[in-house]
Design a protein that fits this description.
The complex is a heterotrimer of chains A (238), B (288) and C (311). Chain A has a single domain, classed as P-loop containing nucleotide triphosphate hydrolases (Rossmann fold, 3-Layer(aba) Sandwich), CATH 3.40.50. In chain A, 35% of the residues lie in helices and 26% in strands. A six-stranded mixed β-sheet of chain A has the order 6-7-8-3-9-10, with helices on both faces. A four-stranded antiparallel β-sheet of chain A has the order 2-1-4-5, covered by helices on one side. In chain A, a hairpin with a 2-residue loop joins strand 9 and strand 10. In chain B, a hairpin with a 2-residue loop joins strand 2 and strand 3. Chain B has 288 residues and is mainly α. Chain C is built from 13 helices and no strands. Classes of the chains: A alpha/beta (238), B mainly alpha (288), C mainly alpha (311). Chains in contact: A-C, B-C. Chain B: One of its GO terms (cellular component) is plasma membrane. Chain B: One of its GO terms (molecular function) is transmembrane transporter activity. Chain B: This is Branched-chain amino acid ABC transporter permease. Chain B: It is found in: Cell membrane.
Chain lengths: 238, 288, 311
């Protein structure tokens, strides 16, 4: 069942076309990975879908409803939740209050036991009553994932969730994400750490210079000539 | 409707007022554009210059010209110290406004302590008046207009035609890149702060003779500078100049054609409407 | 509730009871007026703290809401014959509506521009009020009927209103609104991503803050029997800021503690030179505290009692 549809999105910043005519669809209960070299437009695509940026043209549909012109918090309340590449915890709130925050504006009751379980799985339980400002970078990254999950999103979009994490921390994050998926969740993940990502995702999109250059199974990514060219740089090969 | 006499008055006085406003606002614009700082104490430098020159001339009987240069030198130095001692350490915008606001209160109350709240009359430096397009203008104001235009041209030359100006513009455009080509940003910013406080002082010295001064003189001037800089697109030399003329003429027109009671409010309402309807100013960066 | 919290609440109630009973029982008439004024400014500081301390929306023009509340209540009771007690709340509602209307477009601006806009608004209000005879012009509005016949009753009412405003800010910050306000202060973009309708909650916070400031302003107008454009001036805008910085930003009791310290200082500084220097002393003190102890006296004490990281 289709849950998200993106049609011909275009976003320009000055002379640069950051997202160039990108279209794709996302199925319910799917894990989609988005990869590509730096500056390919992945984060901009996320910002367009989550509403932080407005597209110059194109449409975005969530469950068949056109959400192109809705506000970011509106999309979040409809279940389209994102995390940020550069972490943005609420620094003066404690770790637990950070989990409470998204539920203050939702009809979901804040279940402390559930929050504690989630924090345990992510190795954050000892820091529960500490303001988020005092966390390490990796802990903040995990807190963002937890803050996304606690809102019970229909789609969770993660921007480099493994960035700067240790191998053990990646394991913790992967396992809570898998759990969410097994309970019917849908994930879109931008990630540079391809080895860890490929094990998790079912389908991959590859972007380069704003364009979508590959769509298919993770196993086929490395076989695609377009992808190899994008990562190596076209001009130098010939 | 509007008599030709009233129109001439608005034209002439609007021009003079706008020039002085431009000079004052260019200083605020400079800190904003280059150092990306908002100095809530900017109006206080204006007040401080007025009181310093007042004290030197009337209390210590020092000649006007010496007073003029001494005051400007003192303000330039104050800006320099201000940057190194205070502004350099503050990263957050809100914290900066809070700190500079408190500093402004301290300076203002220091002035109250030394001079009381009494509205002192400042002495005349250039007596007499001249007819300009049939409008009688005090020589003091005429001299202010000529000095302000000269200073505005000099400032333009400094920013766009000298090496120092190049450094200032590089820091304004891209701090990291400027550092890479060997510019020391802290020195440049200290210089910019010195320039800005000196400009506030210059504007003050051109206007405050032959008037009355009070310790709260600087606050309307701060909001005025803010108004002009927002209207002009935040930190752009030409934009600020143009916006100063818009605000200057709005104020003088309302003052002469409607009522002096509304002149200050009119220009401030102009800027509020600009902020609300077109946050980017006439041309330039967004404030949202 | 922790044991420490219980002791704290009991102590607080005892202090409040003592404040209500002692000045009246000892018949300290000359102090009662001063304490009434202190309660009014404490309310104003509580209001400022809610907006600028907790929500991070720096207001340099709280005098607009304060004077506006005073003017609205005065006009309501003189020209429309509204009974004073009702006029206090209606007046506060009027200024809340007006302030929110002006605030609505300004809240979209980035934080430092919002601060500068708040600096402009009272200046406009001052000039407009000065120019409109219906608002009393330069001289202001005279002969505002008294809120209560006896000074004691007025004092008790001001104490109750002040305690009420503290209670409101406590309840707000303890509720889900408190979390939402803190999110907005910490990171607006992340707050939006978490689903928070940032403009709406900013407006709500602004409205609560204006209402409290408006009530304080109405009390002020009734206490003096007159309200003039001078109330818009910078002193009234900077006092709540200085009081809150002194007592402790983003703490519940900070503004009240700061208000009492400053008002007691005012009364102690009766010597002529010191009276003239009082604003210099406060601003220098606030600047020092802001730079050295950003969380003020109450924040400092709380760290001593609860340990370093307790929220």
């Amino acid at each position: 069942m289709e849950i998200l549809r993106v049609e011909q999105l275009i976003k320009r910043f000055g002379g640069i076309v950051a997202v160039d005519n990108v279209s794709f669809t996302l199925q319910k209960n799917e894990i989609l990975g988005i990869i590509g070299p730096n500056g390919a437009g992945k984060t901009t695509l996320f910002s367009l879908i989550s509403g932080t940026e407005k597209p110059d043209s194109g449409k975005i549909y969530l469950n068949g409803e056109d959400i192109t012109n809705t506000k970011p918090y509106h999309r979040a309340l409809k279940g389209l939740v994102r995390t940020f590449q550069i972490v943005r915890p609420f620094k003066s709130l404690t770790v637990e209050q950070n989990l409470h925050a998204p539920l203050t504006v939702r009809k979901i009751h804040f279940n402390q036991e559930e929050a504690i379980q989630l924090l345990k799985k992510l190795g954050l339980i000892q820091k529960r009553n500490i303001p988020a400002a005092y966390l390490t970078h990796g802990e903040m990254k995990k807190l963002e994932v937890a803050r996304g999950l606690i809102a019970k999103p229909r789609i969770l979009m993660l921007d480099e969730p493994f960035g700067g994490l240790t191998v053990a921390e990646i394991g913790e994050v992967t396992s809570v994400l898998r759990e969410y998926y097994e309970e019917g969740g849908t994930l879109v993940i931008i990630e540079h750490r391809l080895r860890e990502l490929m094990k998790l995702i079912q389908r991959a999109l590859v972007m380069d210079q704003g364009k979508l250059i590959f769509e298919g199974a993770p196993a086929d990514v490395a076989k695609s000539e377009a992808v190899i060219k994008a990562y190596l740089g076209t001009d130098t090969v010939i | 409707m509007i008599t030709s006499e009233a129109a001439a008055t608005v034209l002439v006085y609007g021009f003079i007022t706008s020039l002085v406003y431009a000079l004052f606002a260019e200083g605020f614009s400079l800190i904003f554009g280059v150092a990306r700082m908002i100095d809530a104490a900017y109006g206080m430098w204006y007040t401080a210059a007025a009181y310093m020159s007042f004290a030197l001339v009337t209390v210590y009987n020092i000649p006007s010209l010496v007073t003029f240069f001494a005051t400007i030198a003192a303000l330039f130095a104050a800006g320099f110290v201000y940057y190194w001692a205070v502004l350099r350490r503050i990263k957050d915008h809100i914290e900066m406004i809070m700190t500079t606001f408190l500093i402004a209160l301290v300076i203002q109350n220091l002035i109250v302590l030394l001079f009381t709240n009494f509205p002192w009359s400042t002495p005349v430096v250039l007596p007499g008046s001249t007819l300009v397009f049939g409008v009688s203008v005090f020589n003091q104001q005429l001299a202010a207009a000529i000095a302000a235009s000269t200073l505005l041209i000099l400032l333009w030359l400094l920013i766009y035609r000298t090496k120092v100006g190049l450094a200032i513009r590089s820091v304004a455009q891209d701090l990291d890149a400027a550092v890479c080509v060997g510019i020391r940003p802290e020195r440049t910013m200290a210089l910019v702060l010195g320039l800005s406080t000196a400009l506030a002082g210059l504007a003050s010295l051109l206007v405050t003779p032959q008037s009355t001064i009070t310790p709260v003189l600087g606050w309307p001037m701060l909001t005025l500078a803010f108004a002009i800089v927002v209207l002009g697109g935040l930190g752009d030399y030409r934009g600020t100049l143009l916006a100063a003329f818009v605000i200057g003429y709005v104020e003088i027109a309302v003052q002469n054609l409607v009522s002096p009671l509304y002149s200050g409010a009119a220009s401030l309402i102009t800027v509020l409407l600009t902020l609300w309807l077109r946050p980017k100013g006439i041309f330039g960066r967004s404030v949202e | 509730m922790k044991r420490l919290d219980k002791i704290f609440v009991v102590t607080l109630l005892a202090v409040l009871a003592a404040m209500a009973v002692l000045p009246i029982a000892l018949n300290l008439r000359f102090i009662i007026f001063i304490l009434t004024l202190t309660n009014i400014f404490a309310m104003l500081a509580v209001s400022w703290n809610l907006l600028s301390g907790y929500m991070g929306l720096l207001s340099l023009g709280h005098s607009f809401f304060f004077a506006g509340g005073g003017y609205a209540a005065a006009i309501l009771s003189i020209s429309y014959g509204v009974p004073p007690v009702a006029a206090v709340f209606l007046g506060a509602l009027v200024i809340t509506g007006l302030g929110s209307l002006i605030g609505l477009p300004s809240l979209k601006l980035r934080g430092h521009f919002f601060a500068l806009v708040t600096l402009i608004i009272p200046i406009i209000a001052y000039q407009v009020t000065n120019a409109i005879p219906q608002l009393g012009g330069h001289d202001g509005i005279f002969g505002i009927p008294s809120l209560f016949q006896s000074a004691e009753a007025f004092y008790l009412a001001s104490l109750a209103a002040m305690a009420g405003s503290v209670m409101v800010s406590y309840l707000v910050m303890r509720s889900r609104l408190g979390i939402i306000f803190t999110c907005i202060k910490d990171d607006e973009i992340a707050a939006k991503a978490a689903g928070i309708d940032v403009p709406r909650y900013k407006l709500l916070g602004l409205a609560i803050s204006i209402f409290i400031a408006g009530v304080a302003g109405a009390f002020y107008a009734y206490l003096n029997g007159v309200i003039s454009p001078a109330t818009y001036e910078l002193e009234k805008a900077s006092l709540p800021l200085l009081m809150t910085l002194l007592g402790g930003r983003a703490t519940i009791l900070g503004p009240v503690v700061g208000a009492y310290i400053i008002e007691i200082l005012i009364e102690t500084l009766k010597i002529e030179v010191l009276v003239r220097a009082r604003l210099l002393i406060y601003s220098a003190l606030a600047l020092l505290i802001f730079m050295i102890f950003p969380s003020g006296i109450v924040g400092f004490l709380r760290r001593k009692v609860y340990g370093d990281t307790a929220g």
